[in-house]
Amino acid sequence: MEDSNNPDYMEKFYLDCGFSTRALHAGEHVAQPQHSSHGGAIYQSSTFVFDSAREGAQVFAGERPGYIYTRLGNPTVKMLEAKVNALEGGAVKLANPHLRVSTQGFSSGMAAISTTLMAVCSAGDTLIMGDVVYGATEHLASGVLSRFGVNTIELDTSDLAAVEKTLAQHPEAKALFFETPTNPTLSVTDIRAVADLARVVNPRMKVVVDNTFATPYLQRPLELGAHAVVHSTTKYICGHGVVVGGVMTTIDDQIRRRAYEVLANVGGNPSPFDAWLVNLGLKTLPIRMERHCDNAMEVARYLASHPKVDRVFYPGLETDPFHELASRQMKKYGGMVSFEVKGGLEAGRTIMDNIEIFTLAVSLGCVDSLIQHPASMTHACVPRHKREKGGVTDGLVRVSVGIEDVQDLIRALDRALALV
Ligand SMILES: *Cc1c(COP(=O)(O)O)cnc(C)c1O
Fold first, then answer.
1. Which residues of the chain carry a pLDDT beneath 70?
2. Do 252 and 400 lie in a common domain?
3. 0.85 surpassed by pTM
4. Which residue among 38, 295, 363, 397 is least packed, with the fewest CB closer than 10 Å?
């Protein structure tokens, strides 16, 4: 099954321009048939009008582009898809003009992930998955895909020796899925090395990366050998905490066709309004990420020097075990910082209940700073032994560092830590 409006989003898509120019201009006046409005229009419509029965038949047959029904495609959603395409896949397309890069928008990050995994796995297949992934991703594999006959093997993908061993044991695996950096302890996987290992063992194995924490501004897995990239746009890509959404970008023809078939028939499409908001957010992704990263670095340095903090997880710190790899693979180190406060759960609670400016809430990647306690919130459903193996101790606090004035964030942390 094919999306008739998706010949190749890459024509006239500012591919010879920098990231910020693409974030602002790609898709804006190409993916939407309405050319006269400067801001992309919101096509808040379930269905689209045909000029004639003949034209309708041609659009249905895929003989001419056109919109039919919003589950199958929508001009506002297309605008977002085109922009993400230029950001995740622009450099790959420029280097290999014959490659077809395509992006699909979804109603959530989980819709993007589930659709992509349904595209690469069938009953009886093996899926290799990072052992520290978003909770719902893990439950999708262990509770849902398992019922459809997909067997999932877990693996610490940041350990290349373990990757090599697992791949040798499961060369028939259809896909390898992981996140980098991971949540909440920010371990980093060498995408190129893992993709190379997978290709040697089985050239047909698909490598899929959840790039939510890094965003395409900091890291582009397709340039490093991955076949597909997924995002929860709920986080940095929208950036303002007002939408739940997702996207998937792929250079693989089979993933593109099958994912569109799943999307069209399972129905994880985004609403036009949500797609419009995510598109708006993307325009400022570069400047937001610069500020998130710079603020997070200062927050991490401050925490690392604080006597009440046992350990800080941030790949930007020279002392972090993943610093060298992250420096090679990412433009900067992201906006997420986790730290272990002395005094365990009680100390963590004191900070979260008293801190100023930071909002106590899960999710991440908002313009404003958020704070949460993984052991009792996002990771509460993960069994304790597994949680602790992944570094999620009772004293671990996770902050999504916003773009406020950093001295205000540090003062807020300082005052909260003084109460511990
Ligand atoms: C939030 C998140 C998801 C799930 O996305 P939703 O938009 O909440 O469905 C998947 N992966 C990562 C890394 C996330 O942070």
1. 1, 4-12, 30-35
2. no
3. yes
4. 38
